[in-house]
Q: What sequence folds into this?
């Protein structure tokens, strides 16, 4: 008999299982507007947990349940339709897309913006369409940036995390002709730290290289709903601002903002834009309204006050906290300890997921604590109490 050429997926899954890498979908409760699990009236799985507090969502401003955002999506679903029906370049271009793009361009203080069906699609499509000769990429950049580099077939030079000196060394050592792209996340999703963008721009400018910044975890949270690029006043030094509509903007989709020429180039050549159905119009409308509401300062202020209280409280207890943003990694080191702590915290009604290798380096397993603006001060105190009691119970404090 000739050799089999079929796919043995069962054994691949078993290998994952043995390595502790097998994942599963979480039961279908959804995170309600006030930052607690709420039963999903249309969910097929049994509701789990009595309204646990969720410190695990990327809906940082709690806008996914905001009535203004919901109404905007609902109106457009009725008036325009639920789906774009085709690529934007064919018949899928609608008013809500255009007004969202105008709002994004204004927030990002650039000529134009272009929305994609996800942040993932924005990254892979944009990096590949830029067709760089070399990409210099932070070692902790998001998977969609990594995949964009692969798809572009550019030579990819990985520099040490948030280390402009290492970036500069690698730029200096490179002798490849053609356009160079330096790409970094602004806020890193697992470490909660911020890239030193100004120094990265300095290094790139010495070589005439372009800078692309992924603002997925920053968009909506800084200056008038902008990101770190706006906070640091780097609008005219970052040629490609990218982000997602799916985190603080409480919707779905991704965007790229920059010059007129950049947007024209992408809408002609980014394959994930050209050959993919336009973003669903209600998602565009929701993101636009969320962007408007995000610039209400008291909402972001509530988030930052929760962040400060959690950082102070957890540090005082003796936990090791990393980062400087709304993402608070409580680093415990050992993967088993992280799982035990997450379980013990959850037994106390608080959800904060354990993040383990290979998502993070060996020996840095952590709980990723992410508050929402819609949590109350009492919710934050409950989270702190859960961490104090759980830490003692599992012997980490
Ligand atoms: N970039 C970063 C830094 C992200 O964290 C994510 C989402 N996890 C993405 C891009 C992809 O965005 P989306 O979820 O909209 O595809």
A:
């Amino acid at each position: 008999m000739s050799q089999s050429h079929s796919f043995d997926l069962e054994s691949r899954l078993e290998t994952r299982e043995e390595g502790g890498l097998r994942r599963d979908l979480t039961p279908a409760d959804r995170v309600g507007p006030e930052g607690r699990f709420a039963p999903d009236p249309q969910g097929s799985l049994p509701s789990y947990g009595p309204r646990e507090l969720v410190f695990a969502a990327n809906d940082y401003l709690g806008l996914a349940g905001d009535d203004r955002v919901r109404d905007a999506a609902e109106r457009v679903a009725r008036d325009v339709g639920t789906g774009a029906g085709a690529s934007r370049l064919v018949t899928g271009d609608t008013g809500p897309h255009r007004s969202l793009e105008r709002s994004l361009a204004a927030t990002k203080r650039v000529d134009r913006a272009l929305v994609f069906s996800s942040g993932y699609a924005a990254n892979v499509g944009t990096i590949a369409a830029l067709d760089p000769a070399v990409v210099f990429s932070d070692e902790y950049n998001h998977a969609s940036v990594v995949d964009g580099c692969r798809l572009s077939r550019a030579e990819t030079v990985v520099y040490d995390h948030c280390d402009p000196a290492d970036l500069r060394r690698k730029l200096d050592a490179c002798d490849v002709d053609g356009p160079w792209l330096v790409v970094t996340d602004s806020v890193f999703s697992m470490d909660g730290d911020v890239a030193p963008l100004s120094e990265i721009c300095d290094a790139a400018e010495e070589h005439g290289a372009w800078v692309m910044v992924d603002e997925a975890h920053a968009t909506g949270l800084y200056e008038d709903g902008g990101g770190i690029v706006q906070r640091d006043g780097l609008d005219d030094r970052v040629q490609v601002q990218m982000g997602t509509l799916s985190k603080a903007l409480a919707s779905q989709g991704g965007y790229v903002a920059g010059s007129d020429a950049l947007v024209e180039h992408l809408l002609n050549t980014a394959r994930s834009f050209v050959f993919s159905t336009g973003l669903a119009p209600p998602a565009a409308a929701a993101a636009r309204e969320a962007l408007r509401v995000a610039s209400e300062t008291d909402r972001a202020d509530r988030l930052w006050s929760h962040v400060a209280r959690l950082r102070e409280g957890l540090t005082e207890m003796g936990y090791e906290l990393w980062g400087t943003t709304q993402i608070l990694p409580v680093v415990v080191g050992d993967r088993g300890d992280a799982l035990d702590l997450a379980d013990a915290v959850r037994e106390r009604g608080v959800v904060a997921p354990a993040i383990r290798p290979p998502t993070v380096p060996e020996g840095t397993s952590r709980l990723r604590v992410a508050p929402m603006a819609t949590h109350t001060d009492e919710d934050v105190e409950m989270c702190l109490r859960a961490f104090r009691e759980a830490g003692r119970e599992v012997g980490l404090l």
User: Anything to note?
Assistant: The chain is about 40% helix and 15% strand. The radius of gyration is 22 Å. The mean pLDDT is 94.
